[in-house]
Amino acid sequence: MYAKTMASVVVIFELASQKNCFLIRKGGNNSGKGESVQIQVFEASYAEGKKAYFSLFGGVLKSGDTVTINGLYAAKLGIKDLQQIVLKPVSCSEIHCQKVQVEPLSVDDWEILERNGSTLENCLMNQVRVVWPGQVLPVWVEKSICVFITIGEIDPLGKFSLLGTNTTVIVTPKSRSLKRAGSQHQPFKMPYRQATQDQTDNSLLPDSPHIKPTPMLPGKEMHSQKVPTLASEY
C-alpha cells in the first residue's frame, strides 16, 4: 500500500502523451502489482488564484518531484510544460459522486459522442477520477480520437467529487439546430467491466481493483478529424 503524501509539496509538471487526466509521478511505481493502491487527491494552486484537483499514481510525492500530465488537459487548465505548482493533499474518503452532469464542449464533440452511443460511459472513469464544476477535460473515445467535455453540476455539491461505479452521468446534448437543442438529457450509469489489452491504452495505470480498463463499445463509423498524439509535440 502506498503511504500518502501528507504535507504540501512543490512539483514540476511535465507535459506528456498519456491518454488520461491523472497525475503520474515520474520514476514512481505505476504498475500497482501486488499492492493495494489508494487514490490520493491533491489541490493545485497556480497562476494567480487558479485551482484544480488531481488524483495521483506512483507513490509518495516530495518537493522537487516531477509528475506527468496530458498536454491537452494541461492546456485547458492553463498549465505549462515544466511549470512548478504547489500540491496540497486533501481528504477524499467521503466525497463520492452520486450524479454528475457533463456537456460536450462543442457541437462537433457532441456529434462524435452521439455516433458512438455509450462510449463515454465506458471510458470516463478509466481516464479521470476527480471532477469539479467548470472542469474542461479530454476523453478518448478511440486511441486517436478525443472529445472535450465540461463538468456541470455534481451531486453531492462540493468543491470536487470522486467518480465511482455507481455514479450516474447525465449528458447534455449540444445541437446545431435550435429545434434539436431542446432534446432531453440522457442519463446512464457507468459500467465496470474489464477489457483486453488491445482495447484500451492504460499501461500507465495501476492494476487496481478500483480502476480497471473497460471495453470500447462498437459505434457507427465516424468522420471526425483525428486528434494527433502529443508524442511529437512534447
Automatic annotation (TrEMBL):
GO terms, biological process: peroxisome organization
Record bears the keyword Nucleotide-binding: yes
InterPro entries cross-referenced by the UniProt entry: CDC48_domain_2-like_sf, PEX1-N_C-lobe
Residue ranges constituting the Peroxisomal ATPase PEX1 N-terminal C-lobe domain according to the UniProt record: 98-173
Organism superkingdom: Eukaryota
GO cellular component: peroxisome
Stretches the record annotates as Disordered: 176-234
Alphabetically ordered keywords of this record: ATP-binding, Nucleotide-binding
GO molecular function annotations of the record: ATP binding
Bias kind Polar residues: ranges: 194-205
Residues forming coiled coils: none
Nucleotide-binding keyword on record: yes
Protein's name according to its UniProt entry: Peroxisomal ATPase PEX1 N-terminal C-lobe domain-containing protein
Taxonomic lineage of the native organism: Eukaryota, Metazoa, Spiralia, Lophotrochozoa, Mollusca
